[in-house]
Structure formats: C-alpha cells, structure tokens
Amino acid sequence: MAAPGTDAGEFENWLNGRLDSLEVDREVYGSYILGVLQEEECDEEKEDAIRGILSAFVDEDTVEDVCQQIIKEWTASCSRSAKRREVEDAEVQAIASMIEKQAQIVVKQKEVSEESQKRKEALLAQYSTEGEEEEQPSGNPIPGNEKSLFRNTNVEEVLHRQKQKRDQAREDAQKKKETDKMQREKDKLAKQERKDKEKKRTQKGERKR
C-alpha cells in the first residue's frame, strides 16, 4: 500500500488538478490511480499501471514524465504525512506520560486515604460492634480478549471495504477506458467520412467546370 497513513486528501486534490489539466476524467481515473499508488510496492509497478491508463489520453512522448511526476508527488506526500505522524505521536506520548503520572498521584492519595480510613474504623471497632460494609464496584466490563477481538473484527471490516472500493474503481476505470477508445474511433471515422464527402464534392465541382 503501500504507504499506510498517507494524507490521501492532500494528494488527491493535487491529482485531480493534474488530471483536469490533461482532460482526463478525474471521477473514474483518479480513484483508480490512487488505488494503484496505495497497493503496488515498487515505483516500477506503479508507473506501469498508471501508464496503462494515461497512454490513452497523453502523448507517448510525455506519458512517462507525467507518470513519474505523479509518483514523485505521492512520495513527497507520504514523507510529509510521516513527519506529521511523528510530531503527533510525540504529543500523544507526552500526554500519556502526564496522565500516567497524574494517575500514580491519585493512586497514592487513595492508598493514604484508605489507610487513614482503616485506622478510623479500627478505633471505632473498639467502641462499637457495628461495622460498615464497603461498597463493591458494580458493572460488567468487557474482558480484554473480547475487546481485542471486537477491535480486530472492525479493522478487518474496514480493510475489506477499502479493497472492494479499490477493485470497483479499477473496474470502472477499465470500462471507461474502453468506452472512450470506442468513442475516439467513432469520431475518427466520422471525421474521415466528412473529409471523403468534401473531397467528392470538390471533384464533382471541378468536372462540371
């Protein structure tokens, strides 16, 4: 992928602008190209897949430069995202450390408070036979292993949906490519027919003279 955690939104905005400049349908081909960049491991595989799509729209002399430009921007976006994650992780770690210290202070205060309470109860017990029952904590927490299973199931479901989305984008892109190719062929034939008709009219005019 890949490059997990990449800020795809930032890159996607850039990619949409680049596809618009090439007059390529961003809705169909943008999702497919993004999926290729996320799934393929090496730049060569990414470039081959992207060239297979863009070669239908971009001149052969420039398609390689466009592919490399897209991959270069994707790599830069991944690098920026990694740096942001490092900063965020450091902030989270600092907050977690502070919370842990506060929790330790609370625990110590609770231990002191409980020890003090025990001494009071011991003194009261000397003068009274009545005792106080300590309230038991209520609730039915989810066991740790069940929580872990719940989280893993959610992750698998999200990954499955993402894969389905990428597969659909690839299929849509292929269909769109074939449709566009057929339309270009029709336009080319229609243009040639118009040229032939115009040529025949010109020849008839010359014979009449």
Mean pLDDT: 79
- Subunit organisation of the chains: single chain
Q: What portion of residues is helical?
A: over 70%
Q: Which spans have pLDDT < 50 for at least 5 consecutive residues?
A: 1-6
Which structural category fits the helices and strands?
mainly alpha
Characterize the largest beta sheet: strand count, sense, and whether it forms a barrel. Answer: none
Number of strands: 0
What percentage of the residues does DSSP assign to strands (E)? under 5%
What would you report as the Rg, rounded to the nearest angstrom?
34 Å
Number of helices: 5
Q: State the distance separating the first and last CA atoms.
A: 71 Å
Order of helices and strands: HHHHH
Principal-axes geometry comes out as rod-shaped
Structure summarized in a few sentences:
This protein has 209 residues and is mainly alpha-helical. Helices cover 83% and strands 0% of the residues.
Protein topology:
Blueprint: H1 8-21, H2 26-39, H3 43-54, H4 60-127, H5 144-208
Helix pairs in contact: 1-2, 1-4, 2-3, 2-5, 3-4
What this model shows, in words?
- Residues 197-209 have a biased composition (Basic residues).
- It holds the Pfam family PWI_CCDC43.
- Residues 110-122, 157-196 have a biased composition (Basic and acidic residues).
- Keywords: Coiled coil.
- It comes from Cynoglossus semilaevis (Tongue sole).
- The chain has 209 residues and is mainly α.
- Among the domains are: 1-94; 168-209.
- The protein has five helices and no strands.
- It has helices at residues 8-21, 26-39, 43-54, 60-127, 144-208.
- Helix 1 runs antiparallel to helix 4 (60-127) and helix 3 packs across helix 4 (60-127).
- The longest helix has 68 residues, at 60-127.
- The protein is rod-shaped, with a radius of gyration of 34 Å.
- Mean pLDDT is 79; it is low at 1-6.
